[in-house]
């Protein structure tokens, strides 16, 4: 079902200073910067995998709440799937608790999250990548 790791999401407080770290210190080049819902997202490619830097765009958003509760760090791991709707059906049929009942729009395409209760306390995301990626 999972074709490959698409990205690793990292929650950060300051998107600009964190982006500078990844570019100036690590020598990487961000692919894009977008606002998705209540998050500012910067995608940084490393080989075939992306690092998704996630900062709050508001004090009430999911990343702001994550940072308040847990601080900066890994937020989730995302796996690519060929067909998100089929993958969601398979996951639900196998007993996985899905946070999303329908796919939603993410930075890379349609996404859905699997509740950490089902995955050894790791928030997992699946994505069906947009063809233009």
Overall description:
- This protein has 133 residues and is α+β, with helices and mostly antiparallel strands.
- The protein has a single domain (4-129), classed as 2,3-Dihydroxybiphenyl 1,2-Dioxygenase, domain 1, CATH 3.10.180.
- The protein contains three helices and eight strands.
- The chain has helices spanning 15-25, 62-70, 84-93; strands at 4-11, 32-36, 39-46, 49-56, 73-80, 104-105, 109-114, 124-129.
- It has an eight-stranded mixed β-sheet with strand order 2-3-4-1-5-8-7-6.
- A hairpin with a 3-residue loop joins β6 (104-105) and β7 (109-114).
Helix-strand layout with pairing:
Elements: E1 4-11, H1 15-25, E2 32-36, E3 39-46, E4 49-56, H2 62-70, E5 73-80, H3 84-93, E6 104-105, E7 109-114, E8 124-129
Task: Please tally the helical runs, counting DSSP H or I stretches of 4 or more residues.
Answer: 3
- The whole-angstrom Rg is 15 Å
Major sheet description: 8 strands, mixed
Strand content: 35-45%
Strand order of the largest sheet: 2-3-4-1-5-8-7-6
* CATH-assigned homologous superfamily: 2,3-Dihydroxybiphenyl 1,2-Dioxygenase, domain 1
- Please provide the ordered H/E string of secondary-structure elements: EHEEEHEHEEE
Number of domains: 1
Reported by name, the CATH topology is 2,3-Dihydroxybiphenyl 1,2-Dioxygenase, domain 1
CATH class category label: Alpha Beta
As an assembly, this protein is: single chain
Q: What's the count of strands?
A: 8
- CATH architecture annotation: Roll
- What is the terminal separation in angstroms? 20 Å
- Percentage of residues assigned to helices: 10-25%
Tertiary shape: globular
Q: What value does the average pLDDT take?
A: 95
Structural class: alpha+beta
